[in-house]
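Case study: Glycine dehydrogenase (decarboxylating).
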Amino acid sequence: MNAPRIPLAQLERGIPFEQRHIGPDAAAQAKMLAQVGYGSLDELTDAAVPDAIKSAEALRLPGARTEAEVLAELRTLADRNQVLAPMIGLGYYGTFTPPVILRNVMENPAWYTAYTPYQPEISQGRLEALLNFQTVVAELTGLPTSGASLLDEGTAAAEAMALSRRVGKVKGGVFLVDADNLPQTVAVIETRAEPTGVEVVVADLTEGIPAEIAERGVFGVLLAYPGASGAVRDLRAVIGRAHELGAVVTVAADLLALTLLTSPGELGADIAVGTTQRFGVPMGFGGPHAGFMAVREQFARSLPGRLVGVSVDADGNKAYRLALQTREQHIRREKATSNICTAQVLLAVMAGMYAVYHGPQGLRSIARRTHRYAALLAAGLRAGGVRIAHDTYFDTLTAVVPGRAAAVVAAAREGGVNLWQVDADRVSVACDETTGRAQLAAVWAAFGVEADIEALDGGTDDALPGGLLRSDDYLTHPVFHQYRSETAMLRYLRRLSDRDYALDRGMIPLGSCTMKLNATTEMEPVTWPEFGALHPFAPAEQAQGYLTLIRELEERLAEVTGYDAVSLQPNAGSQGELAGLLAVRAYHRANGDTGRTVCLIPSSAHGTNAASAVMAGMKVVVVKTREDGDVDVEDLHAKIDRYGPELAVLMVTYPSTHGVFEEHIGDICAAVHDAGGQVYVDGANLNALVGLAKPGRFGSDVSHLNLHKTFCIPHGGGGPGVGPVGVRAHLAPYLPNHPLQPAAGPATGVGPISAAPWGSAGILPISWAYVRLMGGEGLKRATQVAVLAANYIAKRLEPHYPVLYTGPNGLVAHECIVDLRPLSKSTGVSVDDIAKRLIDYGFHAPTMSFPVAGTLMIEPTESEDLTEIDRFCEAMIAIRTEIEKVASGEWPADDNPLRHAPHTAAALGGEWEHAYTRDEAVFPAGVSAADKYWPPVRRIDGAFGDRNLVCSCPPLDAYDN
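Here is what the predicted structure looks like once written out:
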């Protein structure tokens, strides 16, 4: 008998990508549905999702394509980008990513699939890498404390403005910005200043602070070193004068230049900001890159964002952890000092490792070569009659060519080089690590100059000011001297990654964080030079592939969410929140409703919501949450009645922060609209909605989306992220725009939210590919399986741990919360104990104590297969049995494997004096000796680290006992 004939078209399609992305296959889904009590995915989600919000029609998206087809499409788009030598400068530079770092960090899932190091015992590798980063920034800037990275240079400068206002002596006054700062940085500062009532004054400070400005009071000053024009000036006098006025002084500095120039700290600066992009991180059409901030010691405890500190573990051994204000938004909410709750960890790791690999000598060599090319370029131009505006510079020249600037820039483009036209009479030219003799020749030709580089080299002096040459040592720690060979560097990177737990090891069931597959096919195009090497201010005709990809992704996200317009500029979820709230504020002001300043926020909301609202110039009013986790509708109506004419917006997360589909969301939205307010739906939980419901259709006016959650951009150990904002048509005129790229947003927009026109454009191919690979039906099934997996876990764990909140028909959304408080009260076993014990079982813990103290929020996502989900459930059930041993007295309350978890290999040595066995400690039920993950440290003492703040590489013998 012949085998059945299979149509060629079916064979050609191959295995759909959906089957690679979604973990449980059909048989597994059937088993899970039986456990939950439903016959199909459609039946389950019909029961879980309230009728009032369901989408009637399928998503209107292109059909799913195979991985090979999508890569071919992306190759076509990439080929439409034209990568010229990037001599534009303005904060973005060509750089060589060492291949050992490219392959073993940027392209390595052990680094890019890790989550924020909230469980530090299993994050020691990336925490050490971040400590290296902090050390590089602190020592090059000459300021003792650096954070673990900020989103980009522009937002770092804006954070410095806020910090200056908060800690400075002058109350009131203006924020004074030197005119030679990067234009995008000035624009971001102005966007951030206006809602909070800060007056920004931009002035030429070459001759000092003008008397008329000094008389008004100055709380902070921002200087550039070098300036956007390329000029390198001695800032000591203006810094001294600013301090006489009581101002806090920030210097926006170039780290590569600081390998040769006197540090900002030595010049007297209080704060230094900038970007580490040119330390081996591709330009990526604007991002992602790790911004930085370093401060004087007295400001260390006011730093925004994340700070890695040195502490000790239970044995007194050195260990790293996030220190101080980590996730302060969830504690201080509207009193938080910043809405930044993430970092740019993957990019900070790359920049830090670039410094580790090159060391101080290598960095100085790169800087000297870069400067030498600039000096020779200037000499050739001068010899040809072109005036250079400044005598001292590092890498950037401003050439004065009256009336010829456009012609020169066009001629350079024909020669394969992008320059920057400052105005009709001036051209800016920047050298970098990738600059060579060919680029100099092309630039000279564009200016109509002939020059002999060899002859020039013999008679041209450097152009760094003698009084600013750096004389102190930096990067003296052994880590910056040990790894010169690729073999040594490779092993160092492997050693650090082995100390971490990431998705390449197992499930990370963090609620509200959506740790799903970041497919290799989605990741691959990010490192193609046509996407990675493009300058964000390159002419639009050179970026047609990128601009098409951006437009298509915006359109597809609009279709998924039901909104009319989307901006991809915000480079984190927190920035998307701010952009959305600024759009609401601008809309009210355009309608003459300047008194609408109240933002209603449920008490259960993400902490960044409140912080973002304050940054948008709004007053936060908290709405109560009922015992079942829903918004207290009665209290909401009472607040609406009280604040009606002042009501600007309600911020609400949907599904709720408690992981349920609230049935009254439509009524809630209608009540706010009836009072003249707008509705902001936080998109953190969109993974439960895609293909099932659209926020823009069930009552929301604006949402931010987390592409690093729902749309597969990897978390990278705590960054990068992308937080687009989607709006209905009436808010579209108020989306972010950009002063250097008109196509990036409407002319009536609120200004730039990030330094680059499209934010972290370099990772947008990931989400574009995900949507293209899955198609509308695939995206819907992914959502349905995510909901199924969460309900399956809830049903399996419910006999052992109470599930705190459920929605319609007793179902949860894409995550569930298990309540540990009764157990903790009766046994003394804490949430921390269970979280750390899960490490011994080979798991990253779920989200701890958010949104409810004493609970675990669990989110399996659609990508985990049933074997891994069951392994997690069995570990949780086994831990429940262990808790019973504590409750019964079999194990003492102060000597049991939960209290002492996690257990390291070193803990097994010597005398064993515990009430439980070594095997019970490290090989609990279901843990294989062959596959065991060994944490590198025991439980870390967080309070010790906060009391003894050490945030850069300590001496090798520090904390050794």
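For the exam, be able to explain this: Residues 564-762 form a domain with the Aspartate Aminotransferase; domain 2 fold (CATH 3.40.640.10).
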